[in-house]
Amino acid sequence: MDVLAVPDDELDDLRSRLRRTRWGTSWPGAGWEAGADGGELRRLVEYWADGFDWREHEKSVNALPSHFADLDGVPVHYLRYDGEQPGALPIVLTHGWPSSVLELTELAQRLATPSQYGGAAADSFTVIVPSLPGFAFSPQRPSLPPATETHELWHRLMHDELGFERYGAHGGDLGAGVSALLGQRYPESVVGIHVLAVANPAKYELDEVTPEEQSYLDAEAEWFAEEGGYEHEQMTRPATLSAGLSDSPAGLLAWLLEKYRAWTDCDGDLSSRFSDDFILTQASLYWFTNSISTSFRPYYEFHRGLREKVTAVTVPTAIAVFPEDLVRPPRSWAARTYKVTRYTAMPRGGHFAAWEEPELLADDLIAFFRNLR
Length: 373
Fold this sequence. Notes:
Blueprint: H1 8-19, H2 38-50, H3 54-62, E1 66-71, E2 74-81, E3 89-94, H4 105-112, E4 125-130, H5 150-161, E5 167-171, H6 174-185, E6 190-195, H7 211-227, H8 229-236, H9 238-245, H10 249-262, H11 276-288, H12 297-303, E7 313-321, H13 331-334, E8 338-345, H14 353-356, H15 358-369
Parallel strand pairs: 3-4, 3-5, 5-6, 6-7, 7-8
Antiparallel strand pairs: 1-2, 2-4
Helix pairs in contact: 1-2, 4-15, 5-6, 8-12, 10-11
């Protein structure tokens, strides 16, 4: 199913904007210290304008196993990868920000057809990968707060639309929150969740915090002070930010590029993990679907108290902690809110683990769900 057919005039407009980028005055010696490196950004902007073959990548996107569901008037796009084994356990994978379903395609293939990667067919899953509302192919819901929260949509998709009585869930970043809420709200259907991040406990006493947990809280506060400017802006003044990023493709790319580099286990060399074409395909999806502004909604809604919060997850929970992810919660901290039955400290990888280390992540998911089928 073709999900995207960009008209020639829109592609020409993008290239024209890129060629006419008005660059800010350079900072002496800033590099990546003050944000996106000017030299690297210029290189990618020039390639996006005059070398990047969007039509090739558009074909690849349209070749994905896309489907749409209408859930009480809410259209939801999703990818479906059927498991190679009859009766394979269904699982819903949810991406985060700044991302799309493209980040999860190799992981989905590994889970659906493990025998093609040296595994056992008996471990296969039927994998559903929805696009978050407001990200690329799933439009944002018109009301604020939304009449139906994302985890409610996902359950309707998995249980009511697709007919799965029991299923698992996995996610990182925003997807970790969606997966946790699925387990919290629908324990009779969700056999377990596998997440890369956890919510802090709703309540805790400071005198009960262990030294390891305090180190985590200190690291979390330090990260937010140094790296959390984007999050604070998206939570508090997303409309102001959207005006610039929706009009300038170079500005949009800068906003995404800095995060891909900072949050990846790449030792400063982004090309060791992500190709130029992958980064520009992601940026192009945001641009052509005009979805950077709507992708900020989850941050604003959470900050304003318009979303359900994770308070107690009683289904079996696995946590995979990657060394270069934003923060790395200890098991005891997660266990205050989740029923933690598996905790894996990964040897490498960062925030975009499904793309950076799909083999490690797939193996951990398979091991966790093996006894929950």
